[in-house]
Amino acid sequence: MPREYLLKDGSEFSLTSDDFKNGETIPKRFTCDGDNISPRLKWNGLSEAKSYALIVYDPDAPMKTFIHWVLYDIPPSLNSLYEAIQKNVVVEGVGKQGKNDFGEIGYDGPCPPRGHGVHRYYFAMHALNVDQLNIKGEVNADKLINLIRGKVIGYGLLMGKYQR
Question: Which domains does the chain have, with CATH numbers?
Answer without folding.
Answer: 1-72+114-164 (3.90.280.10)
